[in-house]
Design a protein that fits this description.
Strand order of the largest sheet: 3-2-1-4-5
Largest sheet: 5 strands, mixed
Shape: globular
Order of helices and strands: EEEHEHHHHEHHHHHH
Structural class: alpha/beta
Number of helices: 11
């Protein structure tokens, strides 16, 4: 059988800086299910000498055709940048919850003493003390990080369970793509990245609270992109900005790439003390981030 290769999808833009010799790239990937044509990839370039961030390429609606899968197209887009690529950031998990992959004899999670289960029980007990809803966790569908985001941040951020009905197909797709990538991958949560960065840009809560809303979401995305431009944080071509306003998946791919850049700059939150080391962690901007931190 002949080896199939993906043709390169058309990019929305290409940005290069001829005054700089060194470039570090970050890729954000927004997935949309195995058979959807909504997946998007954003390639960000950072020039340390000039302290400039560029959205260099934006690939929208990456879909399968008769012989080539959208997954292969995403894989090859990543490989094209592998030499200068620092991180690939997905907007979905790619590993199963620890309970599913555990090889020990299972006593039930009521009697389990694995670190992540004990952390979940402590978290559950703390919630009951605060009179939160008495709904028991399910460690075979959710992860510790999803529980953490729902209760321990400045706002409530609900994330779909890694093996919930909405996320499980995305997890499977991300796992299939990630397993063949020769670069470090991280998980991002675009909504929280927008929230923390929006606060640093002095945006109003109403502007950064729901960029996915059917009514007002496009305006929220437009205002954030405008704030980035006004503060000289990232260079984005007008056409790419327009596409991200119209297409939330493209915007979220960009936010994933931006999160990867912040991790490179050590501007994302570390795991909290006592958080289980064998559990997944989602990267998101530090609280109290300042505009000067982005390109200092």
């Amino acid at each position: 059988m002949s080896q199939r290769k993906a043709s390169k999808p058309a990019a929305r833009s290409t940005v290069t800086d001829p005054t700089s010799t060194k470039v570090i790239r970050f890729i954000g990937v927004s997935l949309a299910g195995g058979k959807s044509d909504k997946a998007c990839v954003a390639v960000l370039e950072y020039y340390p000498e000039n302290k400039k961030i560029f959205l260099s390429r934006l690939f929208e609606k990456i879909k399968s055709d008769e012989t080539i899968s959208g997954d292969l197209k995403i894989h090859e887009l990543v490989l094209q940048n592998a030499d200068t690529l620092k991180y690939v950031a997905f907007d979905t998990p790619w590993k199963l919850p620890n309970c599913i992959t555990c090889q020990l004899k299972c006593p039930g999670y009521e009697n389990c003493h694995q670190p992540h289960i004990e952390w979940m029980w402590r978290h559950q007990e703390d919630r009951l003390k605060k009179k939160r809803p008495k709904k028991l966790f399910t460690p075979y569908t959710q992860r510790a990080v999803e529980m953490y985001f729902a209760t321990e941040l400045e706002e409530v951020f609900h994330i779909h369970h890694a093996m919930g009905a909405n996320t499980a197909p995305l997890l499977a797709r991300a796992a299939f793509i990630q397993r063949r990538l020769p670069v470090e991958c991280i998980e991002a949560f675009p909504k929280l990245t927008l929230w923390r960065m929006g606060k640093a840009l002095n945006m109003m809560k109403s502007q950064i609270s729901d960029h996915r809303a059917a009514f007002g979401g496009d305006e929220s995305r437009a205002q954030f992109i405008q704030a980035l431009n006004e503060n000289n944080i990232a260079f984005i071509y007008h056409q790419d900005a327009k596409n991200m306003v119209e297409n939330n998946h493209a915007f979220e791919a960009f936010m994933c790439g931006l999160t990867a850049f912040l991790k490179y700059r050590n501007l994302t939150e570390k795991r909290p003390k006592g958080f289980p080391a064998d559990e997944d962690w989602i990267e998101f901007p530090q609280e109290g981030l300042k505009i000067k931190d982005f390109v200092a």
